[in-house]
Write a structure and sequence with these properties.
The protein has twelve helices and two strands, in the order H-H-H-H-H-H-H-H-H-H-H-E-E-H. The chain is mostly helical. Helix 1 (5-39) packs parallel to helix 4 (88-100), helix 2 packs across helix 8 (175-204) and helix 10 packs antiparallel against helix 11 (273-306).
Length: 346
């Protein structure tokens, strides 16, 4: 099917975002390594010498550019298109790490990359067209429809139950508690980001949307959702092995975001059943490829240490405690996994 101009802009921005974010991981990692060599203390054990390393700041700048591109992409294209394309940043990071950082990409990892690319192509081909939006008040009407209000109410109730009932009891033994909170709040944050992005787009086009209280309300929701999301994602990463958190979080977050977008923006209303099924199949392929790639990379990192390669010294290592109490050692040169989650793809 043909692409509208807005959809095409959204695709280009989403792909650019993945390229910048994926490259930023590698640049930051090189900066962390340089800083560690210069100071003798790595970031994970309290070192802050990386703040004086230009290469690390270049990585941060690259990541910011990628996040801005991702933010703007939501103003042009549906979330069911933009969100899954965020998985491409993991591919770019893995491929660059293979050639630049000598972190070998295994055969299963290569298969995961191919699956992500194939699934992304299917999603792009069958993605719905973005419905023209003329004001933030129109988005507010969508956000206050009965079906989406029911979704929001369900999310809030589930988040409160998980945070105040299950979190104290089994939050540190069941990975679904913390990742569930992150994913539920993440779906609301993406809807609000799309609303704010669209409001800013219209404002820059000469139709000022900053005059309406709805715009500021959506900004408040973005801030609240992102802070909550970051808080519980940090808890998940600090409690469980990244190889466990990463695929579960990505699957839940992306699935709930697409569900929220379909309910609020009715992305599938004008599509044929064949296109919808194709999109779902492409989405499943992307999820499977992401899980395979991420799990393969994390298994390779952890197994290298279990195979007898001890860290060089106590100041050059850090650890993550997995759900079964195992203490896994990782090179501090690795980019913190929180970056891969929090800054990927709203």
């Amino acid at each position: 099917m043909g692409f509208s101009k807005d959809n095409l802009k959204g695709i280009i921005l989403a792909l650019s975002s993945s390229a910048f974010i994926g490259a930023s991981f590698i640049i930051k990692k090189k900066g962390l390594r340089r800083a560690a060599i210069a100071s003798g203390v790595r970031a994970g054990v309290g070192g802050f010498s990386y703040l004086l390393e230009p290469l690390w700041w270049l990585g941060m700048l690259t990541m910011i550019v990628g996040e801005v591109a991702n933010f703007v992409a939501y103003a042009f294209a549906p979330a069911v298109l933009v969100t899954p394309l965020g998985a491409l940043s993991i591919i770019i990071s893995a491929v660059l790490a293979h050639f630049i950082l000598n972190e070998k990409l295994q055969k299963l990892g290569i298969l995961g990359c191919v699956m992500c690319i194939a699934g992304s192509i299917i999603i792009v081909i069958h993605a719905p067209q973005e419905h023209p939006i003329t004001s933030v008040q129109e988005i507010w009407t969508m956000a206050t429809q009965s079906a989406f209000l029911l979704y929001v109410a369900s999310v809030i109730v589930l988040v409160f139950i998980l945070a105040f009932h299950f979190s104290p009891q089994c939050g540190h033994s069941n990975v679904l508690v913390f990742t569930g909170i992150c994913s539920l709040m993440g779906s609301l944050s993406v809807m609000s980001v799309k609303a704010v992005g669209t409001a800013l787009k219209l404002t820059f086009e000469g139709n000022n949307q900053l005059l309406y209280p709805e715009t500021w309300f959506f900004m408040f929701v973005v801030a609240t959702s992102v802070i909550t999301q970051m808080n519980y994602l940090n808890k998940a990463l600090d409690t469980f092995n990244t190889a466990v958190v990463s695929p579960i979080y990505y699957v839940m977050f992306t699935s709930l975001t697409i569900l929220a977008s379909v309910i609020m923006f009715k992305d599938w209303d004008d599509q044929s059943m064949g296109s919808i099924v194709s999109e779902i199949c492409g989405f499943v392929v992307v999820l499977s490829g992401t899980v395979l790639l991420q799990t393969t990379r994390e298994f390779e990192r952890s197994s290298s240490f279990r195979g007898g390669y001890a860290p060089l010294s106590p100041t050059l290592s850090t650890g993550l405690c997995s759900g079964n109490g195992e203490f896994l050692r990782h090179e501090e040169g690795d980019v913190p996994s929180i970056d891969e989650f929090c800054l990927q793809k709203q």
